[in-house]
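User: quick one, sequence for these tokens?
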């Protein structure tokens, strides 16, 4: 194999979910593309990596000091949705059903990976709550063991703000799931979060 092709494949394999065969397929596809398109792609990646910042208010990604969400005066500033990653924020935004503010933690507590509470943007969230403007915090993080640990930690930290309502997104059985294949913890959450129909 060409050394240049091998180098490109090795670099592409650094990306999550990209194995050797996928890297080779992507590299071969780039060879068929116009050189201007490949140049534009590589320039966009380099510019993104060098110029992207974290929003000073919510920790979302932005190319400005404040992200477009935090700059939007039409959003409800009394509600903050706490998410693990920017991808989670984007998923919620894509529904068009939420019009409040966000706070991106930057991960979840995971002792196995050496991630503790001080590695997350929890203090930044607490600083926002000190303003007294926020009335509700919606915690929208994963239902993994690490997510549940983070939720428990957040609940304890947010007790220092008794005027702030702390809620979590509904957890339970997904649409289209068959009950017999659902684990006990998910069924427990579904029963606890039941609602009137």
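Assistant:
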């Amino acid at each position: 194999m060409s050394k240049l092709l091998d180098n490109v494949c090795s670099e592409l394999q650094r990306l999550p979910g990209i194995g050797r065969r996928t890297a080779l397929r992507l590299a071969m596809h780039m060879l068929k593309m116009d050189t201007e398109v490949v140049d534009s792609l590589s320039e966009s990646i380099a510019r993104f990596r060098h110029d992207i910042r974290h929003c000073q208010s919510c920790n979302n990604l932005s190319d400005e000091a404040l992200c477009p969400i935090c700059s939007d005066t039409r959003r409800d500033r009394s509600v903050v949705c706490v998410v693990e990653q920017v991808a989670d924020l984007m998923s919620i935004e894509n529904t068009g059903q939420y019009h409040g503010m966000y706070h991106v933690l930057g991960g979840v507590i995971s002792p196995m990976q050496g991630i503790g509470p001080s590695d997350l943007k929890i203090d930044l969230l607490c600083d926002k709550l000190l303003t007294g403007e926020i009335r509700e915090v919606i915690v929208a993080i994963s239902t993994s063991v690490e997510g549940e640990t983070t939720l428990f930690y957040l609940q304890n930290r947010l007790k220092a703000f008794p005027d702030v309502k702390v809620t979590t997104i509904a957890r339970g059985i997904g649409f289209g799931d068959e009950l017999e294949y659902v684990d006990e913890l998910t069924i427990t959450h579904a029963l606890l979060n039941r609602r009137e129909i």
